[in-house]
Amino acid sequence: MKSTAPADHEPEHSSKQTGQTKPPSPSLKSMIWHGIKSDASRAWYVIRNTSFREVMRRNPGEAFGAIVAVAGAIAVFIYCVYAYYTYFYSRQFTRYPEPVAQALRKALYFSNHDPDPQRALKYYKQALELCDQEGLDHFSDDVMGIKIQVAAWLEKIESYHNAITVLENLLNDCKRWVEVMEKSAAEGTLPKLEPVPAAKEGEAGVPEQPREGWWAKRTRLLAKAVSISVKLANLYSDEHVLEREVAHERLVWAVETALKETQRRAKEGLKDGEGPWMSLEEIGGSLEALAYSYQEKSQYHLAVPLFFQALRLCQDPCHIALLMNNISTSFAEHPLIPPGDAPVHAMMEESKTWATAAEQRASYLAAAQRWAQNAIEHASQPQGDRRTSECDRACAVALSNLGSVLAMLGKNSEARAKYEQSIALSKKFGFDDYAAEAEARLRSLPEA
């Protein structure tokens, strides 16, 4: 079978065969810096060894170029100094004690600016050890933020299992803290929190500050645990890991925890100082992620109600269209289940009149057709700033899915028209994958 190499792949030349090594080409950055440095040096030499007035009289163009070169070099130098201090002395570092901040600066330098995984890991570990020495709370956002940054860096360098280990440990720590706190609260043994001590000697006049309450801390750590669990699900689903069952377990826990806490607050009210819980958009995102997980497991009957709940919480008109399309897909692939056994049957009046499996299947396909049409209508409505590329994607995919549903219903001519519309729209907006899939579905239709 003929294969085509990528366009940017260059063949190896005969230098390898002769044993000669081609010197590396200088980078664009080094070329620009070398040019500025050379021009600045030359300009300074001219200014230092020649009367400026004489140079201006004899060759004004060269004099002007010298001035520009010197000014450019100074501007670059000032910018580099500014960028260095803006980044390495920003709030993300100065909120830590100086020893911790210094270790973090080195860790991030060897993570992003001069990549060296061994040295970066060394300084990340050093930063966490110094947090212990400085007496920082292990469950503060600052300390947990370092651990999350380590996991993100490990993912970036494709050390996925190590990233998972870091996040799993953090998730378990958060879970244990919440469990112990809830047990103590139920037993009435939570210790009284004293306010943060007043300013140290020589800093008089700074008032005492209240500590974070137990229930406020519980809310923060529980929300953090939910977000970490969702992130772990993404990592476990990654093609380099592919542990989908574990990914599904993490998503189930995240969704159940988010909904359970929402219901507790609605039933019991807020505790003293508890603070707000996850936003509707965040909860909807967790529901949607779990629904996709059920789709991957071909458990479409479990995905449908989750997409419905996510749809109720969604405020973005373009994303609403995408959710409607996913509902359509789930109905189209919905397995035949005895009436009343699937969560979505309660929302379908047809479930009362199904007599045969064929009637049930026809009812699912009719629902799939309605939701695909709804998705197309909603994706077409937003205009101006409210319209995003997600609307265009939702419309293109919904047209293709509607064609598939119509084909399942035996309406091949209508299906062909929807496929053609999807192909045209996909090509218009550059969605090549969608166009290719719609074309494949079109070819699979029987000839009229």
UniProtKB/TrEMBL annotation:
GO MF annotation, one: misfolded protein binding
Q: Does the keyword Iron-sulfur apply?
A: no
Family annotation (CDD domains): Mgr3-like (cd24145)
Q: From the UniProt entry, list the residue stretches annotated as the region Disordered.
A: 1-27
A Gene Ontology BP annotation from the UniProt entry: protein quality control for misfolded or incompletely synthesized proteins
Alphabetically list the UniProt keywords: Membrane, Transmembrane, Transmembrane helix
UniProt-listed InterPro entries: Mrg3-like, TPR-like_helical_dom_sf, TPR_rpt
Instruction: Tell me the Pfam families matching this sequence.
Output: TPR_10, TPR_7
Query: What is one term from the GO cellular component aspect held by the record?
Result: i-AAA complex
- For this protein, the parts annotated as crossing the membrane are 63-85
Full protein name: Uncharacterized protein
